[in-house]
Amino acid sequence: MKTRKGSEIAFSYIALLPAFIIVLLFALYPAFYAVYLSVFKSNFLIFNRHFVGLSNYITVLSDSQFWIALWKTFIYTFWCVILQFFFGFTLAIALNKNIFGRTFYRAAIVLPWTLSPVIVAIIATIIYEPSSGGLLNFILLKLHLIREPVSWLGSGSAMYAIIGANTWFGMAFTMVLELAGMQSIPTSLYEAARVDGASSLKVITKITLPLLKPTMLVNFVWITISTFNEFDLVYALTGGGPLQETNLLGIHMYNTAFKYGKFEIGSTIAVLMFVINALLTVVYSKLLKGTNELA
């Protein structure tokens, strides 16, 4: 019996080995190598390398472009997280009810989330077409909300455009996660609240939200980190332009390392991004402290 159990455990480890190797090669190794590069200076990635300690960090933190990119990233992340959660949570509440076509609506909302960010960027480019034939301009012109077509990806409006694209792309995750959480809440609690005459708003604030705090923690951490590290969607839409208006930290890191060949500086920015992600996770954990007791 023990031999059979030992064989099953051994098989489990063997089955997990390919996944572990993939994570090691494509996640852990690049992360540790970035930390390694951040404390070295070199003209090339391999040759003529020498240890410089925290010199690269001082260089990055002394660069005004880093702080400008960081500030833009915080603005972008803040609004994307707020809007993703608001629309995702609202849709979850609506689709948690027994309405006609509920399955269709769920599938339609989740569809963008299943696509590649680059594909989403292509669709968004069509929607944001600056001519009167662009979908967004066409709708707003017909509703008389604008007088002439707007260049949504141009100067002055590009940040709003990428926030809108990210919200449309990411709100499905919040909807799926919060909807799953809502369906795990005992219906007896809602029935008791209705008997007591509680309004819909009271039910949400006193029952739904408190019991969803553990789910909300996972939700907020995920969408914050994924949005803060955003690269492909924004890069495919604007490339960081126009005039570096959407030059987020991820794009700034990419350009520094691969466009200008400063791999050690790019690695330093990546390490600082990891530190910021860790700090944001700690902040969320503190803000939603005591979720286990409320669950």
From TrEMBL:
InterPro entries named among the record's database cross-references: MetI-like, MetI-like_sf, UgpAE/MalFG_permease
UniProt domain ABC transmembrane type-1: residue ranges: 70-284
Matching Gene3D superfamilies: MetI-like
Keyword Secreted: no
SUPFAM superfamilies reported in the protein's UniProt record: MetI-like
Record keywords: Cell membrane, Membrane, Transmembrane, Transmembrane helix, Transport
Coiled-coil blocks: none
Subcellular location: Cell membrane
Membrane topology, record value: Multi-pass membrane protein
Source organism superkingdom: Bacteria
One GO-annotated biological process of the protein: transmembrane transport
Transmembrane segments: 12-36, 74-95, 107-128, 158-180, 263-284
GO CC terms, sorted: plasma membrane
Family: Belongs to the binding-protein-dependent transport system permease family.
Protein name: Binding-protein-dependent transport system inner membrane protein
Species per Swiss-Prot/TrEMBL record: [Clostridium] cellulosi
